[in-house]
Specification:
6-stranded parallel β-sheet; 8 strands; 38% helix; alpha/beta; TIM Barrel
Length: 299
């Protein structure tokens, strides 16, 4: 009996020891201070790769302004000049929408590439590379018919073009109607149309006083930039007429290049054969088939 009681006592004492050990461990865990957040190691974050720096293409040396670079003299680049586009032509130099559509289809079929005026000028200045068989399309005088018929075709084919605008007649409905400022803004915002100044009043500059020439050049540029919100860097001579003093004033007005024309087929030539950047020659649209056919056949 005594031994039995002694055995029970030892069991009770053992259980009490276990309970005391567990309690002490719990107390120590509760009272131990929590580690400060600042002492915890920060998780590792993978560093983002630095963007690859794009090295700018080296600028090609440009010929002295307004000369055409010798490197640009060998690539023949025709510029085609259009005027009004109407279902029934008023004058010989108008073109019908169907005929214009055939021109654009021919450009596509012959593998020619319409380029921007900026691309052309850069090439003429430096010899910069152009796409295969380049051609430039230009539309003079801002006729409403150009907006109604040519602009949709340009969008359909995704062809860029130049729009030469005389500011006094924008939106005029007298005679042959002209496109409005809103329509010009729409065309500029399309990204396909480069607007060139065509003076204020479409007067022959070689017949005006120096003061009037300056006004026609500077005021048209100012009004176009104010209404369209884009720099106007190019000029088109009314009727293609100019003299050396006018070319100087074109430069002073801040234009980078100027388009000309001639009614004499012997004077018309590809852009790269022009005298300089201030007298870039064009072909009338009546010679389209002849000129484009010759360019296409050269491969």
């Amino acid at each position: 009996m005594y031994r039995m009681r002694k055995g029970v006592l030892w069991v009770v004492l053992a259980l009490l020891g276990v309970v005391l050990a567990i309690g002490t461990a719990l107390m120590l865990r509760i009272t131990r201070p929590a580690p400060e957040l600042s002492n915890l190691p920060s998780p590792a974050i993978a560093a983002s790769p630095s963007p690859t720096a794009v090295s700018p293409q080296p600028e090609l040396p440009a010929a002295p302004f307004p000369e055409i670079s010798a490197k640009a003299r060998n690539l023949d680049i025709p510029i085609i000049m259009y005027h009004d586009v109407k279902p029934v032509k008023d004058v010989d130099w108008d073109i019908t929408p169907d005929h214009l559509a055939k021109h654009f289809q021919t450009i596509q079929e012959k593998g020619l590439t319409p380029i921007t005026l900026e691309q052309l000028v850069q090439h003429l200045r430096t010899g910069a590379t152009l796409p295969p068989k380049p051609i430039l399309l230009t539309f003079d005088d801002n006729y409403l018919g150009e907006y109604e018929y040519a602009f949709p075709l340009l969008k359909q084919y995704n062809y860029p073009a130049v729009w030469s605008v005389h500011t006094h007649y924008v939106g005029s409905q007298a005679g042959k109607p002209k496109a409005t400022w809103e329509q010009l803004q729409e065309m500029v915002q399309s990204g396909l149309i480069t607007v060139a100044s065509h003076t204020v009043n479409h007067l022959r500059l070689d017949t005006l006083s120096p003061e009037k020439v300056t006004y026609e050049l500077q005021e048209s540029k100012r009004v176009l930039e104010q209404n369209l919100g884009v720099p106007i860097q190019y000029f088109t001579y009314p009727e293609g007429d100019f003299i050396e003093s006018v070319k100087q004033k074109v430069t002073e007005a801040g234009y980078l290049a100027a388009l000309s024309m001639s009614l004499d087929a012997q004077v018309e030539c590809v852009a790269n054969k022009s005298d300089d950047l201030l007298s870039i020659m064009r072909f009338g649209q009546s010679r389209f088939e002849e000129i484009v056919g010759a360019i296409a056949n050269r491969g």
